[in-house]
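anyone else get weird line breaks when pasting these?? whatever heres mine. first is seq + tokens for prot A
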Amino acid sequence: GREICRLVKDERKDDGTPITYGDIAILMRSPKAKMDEYAGALRAHGVPVYAETNENLLLQSEVEILRCMLEAIDNPRRDIPLTGALLSPLCGLDCDFLAALRKDKREERLFTTLRDYLTSDAENCPEKQKLAHFIEQLAEFRRMARFMSAGELTDELYAHYAVYARLCADSALRRANLEKFRQLAHSFAGGTPRSL
């Protein structure tokens, strides 16, 4: 990390221009075991890190959140993706609140439980307001999905939920993963969220 900082601060390329972080690459024979250690050490020195790995893009946490959203849009009666979307930073429901709603209704679909709760006389707390807003947005995205490709719908999600800001923090790797996922969605020309 110190050497990279020194190169960027003091050295120049053969053509006389300053060396930038983007000019430097670290190649590793088998990065899986040491990638996090190297990335942490570089970040500790203020070096921005992007790691190209063979890890499955769809298993990265920031991408899984979007997959849950797209699957919930496709079919909100699937409990696992809907729960993932509700507990994600895109909706931000508290897991204790969601568990309390499900306590006596475990045999019922989550979506049905949520709709019943929203139409009940239950106190209008902040969690209920978040949930109502999320369900309204979900309905709107379901309407859009009928007329949009997977890529267009993904772009709408990114814009509406400020996905890069909410899911990346300062992580260049997360941002790159989200961009790869967006590109993947666009590669399904005319595809529905289910095809994604």
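and prot B, same format (seq, then tokens)
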Amino acid sequence: RRPPRSTLFPYTTLFRSDFFGEQRLAELRQSLGSADMQSLNLSYLDGPKLTLAELRGSAEALPFFGDRRMIVVRRLFPSGSGRAADDADAPETRRGKAEADRDREFLVYLPRVPDSTILVLYEDAEFKGNHPAVKVVRDAGGDALASAAPSPQALPDWISRRVREKGGRIDGRAVQELIGAGIDDFRQLDQTLDKL
């Protein structure tokens, strides 16, 4: 087992395609460098159609003029079945045998992703935290479904920080009004902050 990389560069990271997943993906893209470096070292793959050989070919390719490359796989585990990790040997009655075999192939490969590759598994927003991929990624030293959503107590600070990041200013009363508006979708809340 390899020692884990820093939290900024895990071997493999898995997150949902929600507001915070989009933010994390943007951070990782920026870690590759300029837009030119990103274009050379960033690949997007369609998970439902992906074969293990295709993933290996992309992940094991050397980076171009940089230290690492990033592979983003959208919906590698499209069922997001939610099976518990300890249920991996259960009868295949809930899913087709072919799909279960495919999932197992990918799960076996994930810990073997080369150090020069950041593998991002970008799953649906409904992806279950008890899917076996979560345990495999964590056991390999990666980052899996780390929640970046602020708690209700931290929400005022999060709103104030986001407004500052966007170059604006907001007072405490306006923050409380936003919270009182009951916007529970962070993407929608962030778009509201763009208008301030």
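btw re prot B: The radius of gyration is 19 Å. The helical segments are 19-31, 35-41, 52-59, 97-109, 132-139, 155-165, 172-180, 186-194.
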